[in-house]
Amino acid sequence: MVDADDLIYDDYAEDSQDEYSDVGDADYVDPGADEVDYMNAASDPDDDDEIDIMSDDDMFVDQGLSVSDVRKKPYEVDFKSLSIAMLEAAQKVQVEHIAGMFVVPPADAAVLLRHYHWNKERLIERYMDLPEQVKYEAGVLDNPDCPRLLTLSHFTCEVCYLSAEDCGGSMDTVSLACGHRYCIDCYSHYAQQKVREEGESRRIECMNEGCKLIVDEDTMSKLLPPGLMERYRILLDRTYVDDNNTLRWCPAPDCEMAVECHVTPKQLRTTVPSVRCDCSHWFCFGCGLAAHQPVICAIVKLWLKKCEDDSETANWISANTKECPKCNSTIEKNGGCNHMTCRKCRYEFCWICSGPWSEHGNNWYQCNRYDEKAGSDARDSQAKSRASLERYLHYFNRFANHEQSARLDRDLYRRIEKKMDEMQVTSDLTWIEVQFLRKAADTLTECRMTLKWTYCMVYYLQRNNMTELFEDNQRDLERAVEELSGQLEMPIERETIPALRQKVTDLTVYVQKRREILLTDTANGYQEDRWQWNLRAEKDVKNVTVFGAGLMGAGIAQVLSDVGKYNVTLSDVTDKALQNGQAIITKSLQRIAKKKMADKSAEEQEQFVKGVVDSIKVTTDPAEAVESTDLVIEAIIENLKIKKELFGLLDSKAPKDAVFASNTSSLNIAEIAEATSRRSQFGGFHAFNPVPQMKLIEIVRTKETSDETWQTLMDVAKKMGKVPVTCIDSPGFIVNRLLVPYQLEAIRLVERGVASPEDVDTAMKLGAGYPMGPFELADLVGLDTLEHIAQGWRESCAGTEHMPEAYVQESPMLTNLIKEGKLGRKTADKGGFYQYNKK
């Protein structure tokens, strides 16, 4: 069960080796279009869900485009259709504003705004604090002494190697403010290739390798022919809409309109923003699909994925076949005998209970071991698969039926037009007076689509009184819709026309009222937090791959295998690393066996250890490691570049529905996920060292992490026997975010002469109840690790709302200890804050 608010909506040590191991521990929907995750705010990692990208209320007012603040019904949202001309005018207003405020050319102002995804407020805030840094990051440089176009008599282009002499004594050249100058032909060819072949517009960089300056619109106008310049401007318009959370292109074919709707990603947890473009197409502003009231986008995404993939085929197989208890090969029974022999591994077992056949005596055709523990899990799994399939088909058949009926009702329009003509001929009704039939047909189609999506919603609702109330409203609407549909199918007879008109008109009003009641109650339910979602088991994880055979990776693999619920694969780049990982697991299991199996013989303890170690498949081939995986957990070296390279490779090898997770303790999850095409299937899974003993796992959600992915990671953590906590993707997550600044502040106390390390530790243990003081903990973790995390934060996020700069200020005392090689317990001969191995 998941509350509505939950919807969508360790080790520090580093490995200095080049290994993975962290040894320190419907309508108009284009099926080919890229799916836009509605949780995705701007792609800038610094953007905030709560900040409206176009929050300047006067932005469209200047263009006469103000959006009404009046919402007629609880389930309606305010929206406005915008033409290309309106969009360009809106961009011009913002560019002129920034150009005047920052005193920069309009072309540079446009580059700055595009870099900040047209979030004017965030740009102004950053620019006022660090103007030069903002310009550098955006690709803007002030250099009025460097002309863009220049004709030179002494110049050789470093691309084509033609000189001015080769061109008749002079050569037209182009340069940005950086001074990297090339001939206009080469620069023009470069710009045309970027626009025509790559479809790029916003981030076309200087030709010089490594230079990040952006080619502005004014310069592009001198490099592109008129036709291609028009395409360039169209691409810029598209980026303006794509970057804006309050704008979305209408998905109807050949429509060039955009729709403005001020619904934030966070509001999509409780709002279904159905909007209507001026082209008459209704669609959901949140996800771009055809309108799907009353169910929110997150649930729609889960439902469509469930309907489109082959999960139900898998359910049928699970309900009608069984897996070999030993090798997991799928077996279908083709005779009456319950004695089964797996053709792959030759294991003999009982079809009824899945227990070993050797324990069944001579009961060849009848199993008398119904309660046998060895077979109970298999029987439960099969029964659950059957029940899951039947439940899914119940709702899917009704969903599909209303979808088909809605299509058939569209054919009704042709018959309605014929009936309208008949009525005008056989009665004294005018063309206006027979429009009640068209109105009824429109209402019927609209209500069919609403009913269709109610079955999607109720499939995921937890069973309770609120769900029963929803189903009552659903039933009343369905009955009214079927009655109206029947009336529209009635033959036209002259003497019954007045009665038919009255009946159809009354029914149309009633059907509209029933739909409004259902949608209003559902919308109020979202706001009142009445709807409880059941998203469990949507992703059935059986195969888990762990990358990195260091302390963390080996520990995660050990726990996953030991719980007996997963097929675990451990992967690293070398056989040596894998052998080291197996040794770590063996040593850990031996300690566990000695403690928890003290009453068992040494042989039994050894068998336990060997059984877990042997159950973990090891491989250095990443493609083999993920070929059938359901979940990938990465626990390699804390290096963003290496992590992204690994996930980029795995993204092309792993099944499309596999979930990816990183065990990073300090890096930005969203940045790592950028290397993949499955950002909604990506999250953080931060365990703590030693994994077998530590109960906590931090589940980290980016702005794009889907509810299904979050629920999958939560379920895996719980099945591992851990306690998962959820946090957003911010520096240090929860534990490290509090722990590292706490340790650094303790060091600063000593630096200022406030107290000694010993007294600080004693005070925190006795006064705050901490099991260890900050200096004892720093020595245990490693001083270099502490500084590595702090330095990473200083370089990436210090000074932001999530990490005040003072919290990670560099410590001279810590720096000096590290230079002297005093890293804590890992350098026992030298010590750290304390001395160890004293003689």
TrEMBL record:
Its main location: mitochondrion. Pathway: Lipid metabolism; fatty acid beta-oxidation. Transmembrane segments: none annotated. Keywords: Acyltransferase, Metal-binding, Mitochondrion, NAD, Oxidoreductase, Repeat, Transferase, Ubl conjugation pathway, Zinc, Zinc-finger. Residues 153-371, 157-206 form the RING-type domain. InterPro entries: 3-OHacyl-CoA_DH_NAD-bd (IPR006176), 3HC_DH_C (IPR006108), 6-PGluconate_DH-like_C_sf (IPR008927), 6PGD_dom2 (IPR013328), Ariadne (IPR045840), ARIH1-like_UBL (IPR048962), IBR_dom (IPR002867), Mito_3-hydroxyacyl-CoA_DH (IPR052242). One of its GO terms (molecular function) is NAD+ binding. The keyword Metal-binding applies. One of its GO terms (cellular component) is mitochondrial matrix. It catalyses: a (3S)-3-hydroxyacyl-CoA + NAD(+) = a 3-oxoacyl-CoA + NADH + H(+); [E2 ubiquitin-conjugating enzyme]-S-ubiquitinyl-L-cysteine + [acceptor protein]-L-lysine = [E2 ubiquitin-conjugating enzyme]-L-cysteine + [acceptor protein]-N(6)-ubiquitinyl-L-lysine. Its EC number is 2.3.2.31. SMART domains: IBR (SM00647). It is found in: Mitochondrion matrix. It comes from the Eukaryota. GO terms for biological process: fatty acid beta-oxidation. This is RBR-type E3 ubiquitin transferase.
